[in-house]
Design brief:
Length: about 190
């Protein structure tokens, strides 16, 4: 398993043009100014900023089985990368409410979960869905991730979590461009069993 320093170094070697991540007290910290790519298709409200997924994936080259939770328009391969969203029009691999996560997967099934939930009430209204209990979903993610596996939760808040379920592995601030909300890439790791 890679150390936080090795993950930070992998990011820096993949993206030498951006400010490096630092490791302090065995946690990753940093800030990404991603910018807005005007040539991209931004027709889907809430889609990831350009290069977000590739930057995050550079931190986890050792993670093979990935769940895209609240996947939006992200497409997985249906085997090693599974998409999960409540909106059937987006054609996710699994279409259901995020609160029903554990009914679809086995215990310790994923190496990495990438989650980008609606952040605030205005986002839920935009998507046409009711707010859910984020704390419950964060806990349920710990049930389907392998020991030593990760949850990367993009949000405007650090979600509530239990230290019995997750250890805080890192926080990376993210801003896309002017007049956008500042978000936090919250990285959690499930404790490795002895």
């Amino acid at each position: 398993m890679l150390t936080p320093k090795e993950r930070a170094n992998n990011f820096s070697s993949s993206y030498p043009q951006y400010s490096p991540l630092i490791v302090h007290n065995n946690r990753l910290y940093g800030f990404w100014l991603i910018g807005r790519w005007y040539a991209s298709d931004r027709s889907f409200y809430g889609s990831y900023p350009p290069s977000y997924l590739s930057r995050v994936r550079s931190l986890f080259p050792d993670c093979v089985k990935v769940l895209h939770l609240f996947s939006g328009i992200v497409k997985g391969d249906g085997v090693n990368e599974i998409t999960y969203d409540i909106n059937p029009e987006l054609k996710p691999d699994i279409c259901d409410d995020g609160c029903n996560l554990v009914s679809h997967f086995n215990k310790n099934e994923f190496d990495l979960i990438l989650a980008d939930p609606p952040y605030e009430e205005r986002d839920f209204k935009k998507y046409g869905y009711k707010p859910f209990n984020k704390k419950k979903v964060v806990k349920d993610c710990s049930l389907i991730v392998n020991p030593g596996g990760f949850l990367v939760w993009l949000d405007t808040i650090l979600p509530s979590f239990s230290k019995r379920d997750w250890q805080l592995y890192g926080i990376i601030g993210l801003i896309q461009s002017t007049n956008h909300r500042i978000r936090s890439i919250n990285i959690f790791q499930k404790e490795v069993l002895p």
